[in-house]
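quick q for whoever's on today - can somebody do inverse folding on this one?? i tried earlier but teh output was garbage lol. tokens:
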């Protein structure tokens, strides 16, 4: 099987993200324009992988700016014609293509209501850039694979840089740690490929993440679905411990994002419970003590705050998803039934 665009673009992510270090002034300029508006809350509007990026954005912006952040329901604008009042909002639209009609309809309504609108997109010539008042371009280059990889990482990084600009904190030293860890992950590509092999015949699984890494679980589940056609369900690990825990039977595959930080104690409790049930556990973590406890997975060498771990943790998960599709004989560049730009109303 010839190498696909998806893995090439995963590798290119490191180049794309390194370039953000040269764009700090751009983000400080945008933050000044945003701060000149007296917004009371932030609303994200997105679909697909972009919506997963927005999920992390909600957690991160809310934690750092201390203002309410929500995810928009586009159908209220397009189908039901019952939009909320966004006059005092900063409305951030995230769209890789910049062409989604429902996303653009939300922005048009927000503009008419007097909101401040910001677009985060990879397409400088898309509809979105023409109607938003401010724009952040991902500058990730053309993404040929249907599965979003480098653009997703660029979306997370754009939110990260924008947030730090808004709070007046220079993130470059902290960001270097992520870049260094990503370099290490690329060196482990063959190791990740080997770790995929036991899952060749997997048809369903659960993917867990708590708090900031709920977005990582959602995005990984999407990658498994669209590239390997696996029934992959993402949950907050807290929610999973309620009704969905019934799924945790002997040999049931569960992938779990477990960062160092505030949620680790909770995650360890969940792991212990799942181990007792006999579930097949696979861990993505920067806490190496889990390996000493016998938990298989991919371990990263990076000491960063938990709120930043989603930028790093999705990287090995993307590589895992690619090789899972490869071993199953799928074409991750051209999944059945879907295309790169999805037009929703």
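ok took a stab at it. sequence:
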């Amino acid at each position: 099987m010839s190498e696909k665009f998806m893995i090439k673009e995963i590798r290119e992510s490191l180049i794309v993200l390194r370039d953000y270090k040269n764009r700090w002034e751009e983000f400080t300029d945008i933050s000044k324009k945003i701060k000149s508006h007296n917004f009371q809350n932030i609303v994200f509007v997105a679909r697909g992988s972009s919506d997963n990026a927005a999920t992390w954005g909600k957690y991160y912006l809310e934690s750092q700016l201390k203002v309410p952040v929500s995810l928009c329901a586009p159908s209220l604008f397009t189908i039901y014609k019952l939009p909320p009042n966004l006059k005092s909002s900063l409305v951030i639209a995230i769209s890789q293509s910049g062409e989604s009609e429902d996303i653009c309809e939300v922005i048009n309504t927000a503009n008419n209501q007097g909101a401040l609108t910001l677009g985060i997109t990879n397409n400088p010539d898309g509809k979105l850039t023409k109607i938003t008042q401010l724009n952040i371009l991902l500058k990730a280059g053309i993404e040929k694979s249907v599965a979003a990889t480098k653009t997703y990482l660029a979306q997370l990084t754009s939110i990260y840089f924008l947030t730090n600009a808004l709070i007046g904190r220079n993130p470059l030293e902290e960001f270097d740690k992520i870049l260094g860890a990503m370099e290490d992950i690329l060196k482990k590509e063959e190791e990740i490929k080997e770790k995929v092999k036991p899952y060749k015949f997997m048809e369903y699984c659960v993917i867990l993440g708590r708090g900031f890494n709920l977005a990582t679980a959602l995005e990984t589940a999407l990658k498994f679905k669209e590239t390997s056609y696996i029934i992959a369900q993402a949950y907050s690990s807290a929610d999973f411990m309620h009704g969905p825990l019934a799924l945790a039977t002997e040999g049931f595959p569960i992938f779990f994002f477990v960062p160092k930080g505030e949620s680790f104690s909770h995650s360890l409790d969940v792991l212990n419970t799942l181990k007792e049930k006999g579930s097949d556990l696979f861990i993505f973590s920067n806490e190496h003590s889990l390996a000493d406890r016998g938990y298989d997975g991919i371990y990263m060498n990076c000491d960063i705050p938990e709120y930043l771990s989603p930028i790093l943790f999705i990287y090995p998960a993307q590589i895992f998803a690619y090789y899972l599709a490869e071993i199953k004989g799928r074409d991750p560049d051209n999944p059945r039934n879907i295309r790169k730009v999805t037009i929703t109303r």
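fwiw The beta strands are 41-46, 69-71, 89-95, 116-121, 134-137, 204-209, 231-236, 253-258, 280-285, 297-299. also The longest strand covers residues 89-95. so keep that in mind when u check it
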